[in-house]
Each structure stands twice: as C-alpha cells, then as structure tokens.
C-alpha cells in the first residue's frame, strides 16, 4: 500500500515541479520584457489588431506598440497595470484603440471560456493574467482548463506592430469581417468590455498617465454596413469620457488603397495615421 501511495505522489509531483519551473521561467522572461518597455519608452500604443497597424517609428517621442490581435480590454488592463507598476516607469502617454467593433458581442465572448474566442485569448495571454486574483478567469477555472497547461508551455506572446501590403479590399473580404463583428450582435447586455475600458482609464488617471483614445478609420463599405445599434452603443460609451482626448477617424474619407481589409489599415495607411496621431501628443 505504501509503495502504491509513493508511486501516486511521484506521479503527481514530477509534472507539478515541471510546470512550476516552466511557469516561473517564462514569467521572468515576460517581466524582463515588460520592464524594458516601461523604462525605455515615453508612449505606449495598446489595443487590438487595428492598433497594431500604427507605426511607432512615426512618433516624435520614444514609442512602443504593444497591441495584440483580438485583444480584449481585460488583457490590455493587466498588461498596462504591470507596465505602470515598474518603479522606474517612463510611460507618460497611452494611445488606446477603441472603436465600434470593440463593444460588440463578438468581443464580449472573449470573457467566456466556453467560446473559441475566449480560449484563444486565454491561452495566448496566460502570462499577462494574474494567476489568482483574476475575476474573469478564476484560478479554480484555470486548473480544470487544459489550455491552461498548453499556455504554460508557450513563451509569452508579444505581438506589437504589424503591417500588410494588401490594398483595395473586395466587398467579399469585407463581408466576412462584418459577419464576424456584427453577425451575432443583438440587444444582449454587454458589460465586461465596458468595465475594463473604464478600469484602464481610471488606472491612467491614478498613475497620471495621459490617455488618448483612437478610432482608426474603417473602409467606407464596412462603415455603411455597421448596425445602428452598435454605432449608438459606441457613441454612448465614448460620450461619458468627454474629458479625454478622442481622435475619431471613423468619419474620415480614407481612400480604399490605404486598407488591407474592412477595418485594418495597410502599411501606407498605418504610417499616415501614425503621423496624424503624433500631432496630438
């Protein structure tokens, strides 16, 4: 009996030690990376893949693009909180992406581990989320999720500035994006994105970091096919922050050749709008 119990202990101890060592190794790598961003830059660009297209090299101040594909605001908040917590942080300005699609059911699904969207965010950003004090993905829920262990084994992802040479997207391509963003949109109560959007703003105010909210432009065809419900919802959210600089490029008559698809600028477009944003700094 004792021999059997010993085998059981060994069976569970070895993987536990292995995952613990991997976790702390990757955690340290991520922490070093965060510290480097925090101490060597004045401006940080954050948000989802739309903000990834904004070229930090076109800013006058030292700027780092820390945006990430499909990023929900809880991940942005956790990343920013760690960056600003560095004792020698030099970050003075946050350029935060916020647009109509940011407050849709498609993004709200990123908070529910039953959905593919949340599973993607969970595994990809595991090292940016607090292990224990996470109200979105509690520790007990993490332990029973197999993606937790896959995420532990992966090096923390950094994403950041990304470009595309595509231009003049077809309506078929844009229709695909529209369906993803608004196909499931309805009058379902959305709260998590708004909650963490507000937490980001409150954090900046607390840490005396200037915040600039940016809505990068949409392709004209994409813009014309956004449901009114979503447009009104976005406008109602933004109007509550009239004390914050809001660069709204949604109404720009942006040429089709500056887009790679319905809601992403290509490299040329990203350079152009980076220059527009930097003027406000």
Descriptive overview:
The chain has a five-stranded parallel β-sheet. The termini are far apart. Helix content is 49%, strand content 8%. The protein is of the alpha/beta class. It contains twelve helices and five strands.
Question: Helix and strand layout, with pairings?
Answer:
Blueprint lengths: L1 H39 L2 E4 L2 H4 L10 E3 L7 H13 L7 E5 L7 H4 L7 H9 L14 H5 L2 H8 L17 H12 L9 H15 L3 E6 L4 H5 L3 H11 L6 E4 L18 H13 L2
Helix pairs in contact: 1-3, 3-9, 5-7
Write a concise keyword list for the protein shown above.
globular, alpha/beta, single chain, 12 helices
Strand adjacency order, main sheet: 2-1-3-4-5
Distance between the termini: 70 Å
Main sheet, how many strands, which sense, barrel?
A: 5 strands, parallel
* Range of helix content: 40-55%
Short description:
With 281 residues, the chain is an alpha/beta fold. The protein has helices spanning 2-40, 49-52, 73-85, 105-108, 116-124, 139-143, 146-153, 171-182, 192-206, 220-224, 228-238, 267-279, and strands spanning 43-46, 63-65, 93-97, 210-215, 245-248.
């Amino acid at each position: 009996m004792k021999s059997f119990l010993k085998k059981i202990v060994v069976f569970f101890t070895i993987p536990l030690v292995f995952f613990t060592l991997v976790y702390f190794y990757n955690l340290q790598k991520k922490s070093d990376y965060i510290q480097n961003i925090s101490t060597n830059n004045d401006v940080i660009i954050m948000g989802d893949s739309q903000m990834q297209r904004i070229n930090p090299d076109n800013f006058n101040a030292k700027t780092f693009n820390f945006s990430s594909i499909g990023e929900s605001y809880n991940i942005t908040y956790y990343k920013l909180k760690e960056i600003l917590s560095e004792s020698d942080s030099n970050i003075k300005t946050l350029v935060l992406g916020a647009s109509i699609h940011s407050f849709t059911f498609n993004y709200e699904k990123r908070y529910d581990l039953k959905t593919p969207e949340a599973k993607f965010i969970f595994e990809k950003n595991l090292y940016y989320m607090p292990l224990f004090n996470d109200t979105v993905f509690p520790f007990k829920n993490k332990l029973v999720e197999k993606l937790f262990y896959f995420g532990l084994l992966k090096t923390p992802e950094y994403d950041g500035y990304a470009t595309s040479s595509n231009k003049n997207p077809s309506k078929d391509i844009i229709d695909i994006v529209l369906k993803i963003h608004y196909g499931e949109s309805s009058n379902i109560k959305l709260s998590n994105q708004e909650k963490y959007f507000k937490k980001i703003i409150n954090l900046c105010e607390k840490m005396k970091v200037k915040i600039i909210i940016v809505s990068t432009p949409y392709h004209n065809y994409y813009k014309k096919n956004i449901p009114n419900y979503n447009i009104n919802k976005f406008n109602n959210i933004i109007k509550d922050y009239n004390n914050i600089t809001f660069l709204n490029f949604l109404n720009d008559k942006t040429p089709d050749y500056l887009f790679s698809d319905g809601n992403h600028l290509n490299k040329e477009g990203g350079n152009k709008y980076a220059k527009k944003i930097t003027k406000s700094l």
